[in-house]
């Protein structure tokens, strides 16, 4: 389960373990299927979910192919493509839920790269909002 998340988002097990502040072997065992996620401690699942920027429910829902994480902005969420080829992206930023919808063509390449498109949208959103926040702080000084 967790291996798909890391592969889809191009994150190594070692790097992800460091980001979650968990032992490498914990992440490795989850990726290799040696440890069942349902048998993990709640704290472990919570750290993984918090790192990915999603709820524990989403993490354990079995929709791991839809989970997206941007390592640059350290923000993650879930991107789902509906039957009409509309991508629905949800992620948390600054303690609020951000929802974006955008069309994706039915070509296999576009569906294959939905994680990349979602990461770019997350990164753009976070960067723009960080810039705005920084400017507001400077103007208020």
Count of helical stretches: 7
Q: Count structural domains.
A: 1
Portion in strands = 15-25%
Topology pattern, helix = H, strand = E:
HHHHHEEEEHH
Order of strands side by side in the largest beta sheet?
1-2-3-4
The largest pleated sheet is described as: 4 strands, antiparallel
The stretches of 5 or more residues where confidence is low (pLDDT under 50) are: none
> What's the overall average pLDDT, rounded?
86
Give the CA-CA distance, first to last residue. 48 Å
Describe the structure.
The chain has 141 residues and is α+β, with helices and mostly antiparallel strands. The chain has one domain (2-139). 50% of the residues lie in helices and 19% in strands. It has helices at 2-8, 13-20, 24-32, 42-52, 56-60, 108-112, 114-139; strands at residues 67-70, 75-81, 86-93, 96-103. The chain has a four-stranded antiparallel sheet. Strand 3 (86-93) and strand 4 form a beta hairpin. Helix 2 packs across helix 3.
Concise summary:
This protein has 141 residues and is α+β, with helices and mostly antiparallel strands. The chain has helices at 2-8, 13-20, 24-32, 42-52, 56-60, 108-112, 114-139, and strands spanning 67-70, 75-81, 86-93, 96-103. The model has no long low-confidence stretch (mean pLDDT 86).
Task: Give the SSE layout.
Elements lengths: L1 H7 L4 H8 L3 H9 L9 H11 L3 H5 L6 E4 L4 E7 L4 E8 L2 E8 L4 H5 L1 H26 L2
Antiparallel strand pairs: 1-2, 2-3, 3-4
Helix pairs in contact: 2-3
Structural descriptors:
141 residues; 50% helix; globular
């Amino acid at each position: 389960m967790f291996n798909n998340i890391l592969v889809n988002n191009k994150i190594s097990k070692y790097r992800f373990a460091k980001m979650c502040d968990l032992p490498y072997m914990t992440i490795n065992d989850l990726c290799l299927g040696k440890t069942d996620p349902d048998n993990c401690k709640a704290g472990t699942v919570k750290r993984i979910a918090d790192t990915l920027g999603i709820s524990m429910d989403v993490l354990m829902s079995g929709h791991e192919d839809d989970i997206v994480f941007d390592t640059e902005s350290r923000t993650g969420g879930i991107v789902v493509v509906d039957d009409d080829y509309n991508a629905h992206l949800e992620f948390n930023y600054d303690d609020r839920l951000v929802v974006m919808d955008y069309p994706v063509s039915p070509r296999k390449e576009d569906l294959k790269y939905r994680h990349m498109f979602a990461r770019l949208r997350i990164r753009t959103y976070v960067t723009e909002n960080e810039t705005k926040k920084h400017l507001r702080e400077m103007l208020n000084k």
